[in-house]
Design brief:
Blueprint: H1 18-32, H2 44-51, H3 55-67, E1 71-73, E2 79-81, H4 84-87, H5 93-97, H6 105-129, H7 135-147, H8 151-169, H9 172-185, H10 189-200, H11 203-214, H12 218-244
Antiparallel strand pairs: 1-2
Helix pairs in contact: 1-3, 2-3, 6-8, 6-11, 6-12, 7-8, 7-11, 8-9, 8-10, 10-12, 11-12
């Protein structure tokens, strides 16, 4: 009901970066379902009282939430929660993966599925649109991957490799998807290192993909990317299924 105290446990906010902290608390409530889609948030005045901040601070946070597609702010009326699954953009993905520091398995599964589906298509576009121009940067990334024994830094070299591939694909949509997937993935580099060895521990597979792209062969690049991405993806998906069961 409009003006009631929210069900989630809101806490007074320190004066440092207060709009960010207000934004984070309300966003967590929306993502967790404490604030349901279609529900009206408490008034600015009530939120300011509960959070211990000024109304302009609350207003700024609500505007940011509106820009992110999470709420609808009506002039002179209630601020209504929107269904983030229908209205939010890719920038929300890292927050969905680790809400309140806990891994959301269903989001992790969807990220892996998107990665396996999109990676071969991006590789094919890179071969078609950039070809030989990528030979040197991809070769350098593979050499760095092969020379580094650290399993976390191997993953970073792999990300650098794919960064070049995405650039070569010359697709702003795939670039924004990659950025969001990378932001979601980077906090998990260390815990994922053992499972990702099935991928980053195969520099020859990266080299085969680099050669197919540099040769300007989209079909070969697509198949090489599938061969590279499939083993670790299957292992991770199996691990998620076991955790869900």
């Amino acid at each position: 009901m409009y003006g009631t105290v929210p069900r989630m446990a809101l806490e007074p906010v320190t004066r440092q970066s207060t709009p960010d902290k207000v934004f984070d608390q309300i966003l967590s409530g929306v993502v967790s379902g404490d604030f349901a889609a279609g529900e009206a948030l408490p008034s600015e005045r009530r939120l300011a009282d509960v959070l211990g901040v000024s109304r302009p601070t609350v207003r700024e946070a609500l505007q940011r939430l509106a820009h992110a597609g999470l709420v609808e702010v009506r002039q002179g009326g209630a601020t209504t929660v929107r269904d983030f699954r229908r209205h939010a953009g890719l920038e929300l993905l890292p927050r969905l993966l680790l809400p309140q520091g806990e891994l959301d398995l269903s989001v992790a599964r969807s990220i892996l599925e998107a990665r396996l589906h999109n990676g071969p298509q991006v590789a094919a576009l890179a071969a078609e649109r950039s070809g030989a121009r990528l030979a040197e940067p991809l070769g350098d990334a593979v050499a760095a991957l092969e020379a580094d024994p650290d399993p976390v830094f191997e993953q970073r070299h792999a990300l650098r490799f794919w960064d070049h591939v995405v650039d070569g694909a010359d697709s702003v949509a795939f670039r924004l998807m990659f950025n969001s997937l990378r932001l979601a993935y980077e906090p998990l580099l260390e815990p994922l290192a053992p499972l990702m060895q099935a991928e980053v521990g195969r520099p020859e597979a990266y080299r085969a993909l680099a050669e197919a792209i540099a040769a300007g062969d989209p079909d070969a690049a697509r198949h090489a990317a599938e061969d590279l991405l499939r083993p670790a993806t299957d292992r991770l998906l199996d691990a998620i299924r076991r955790l869900e069961d």
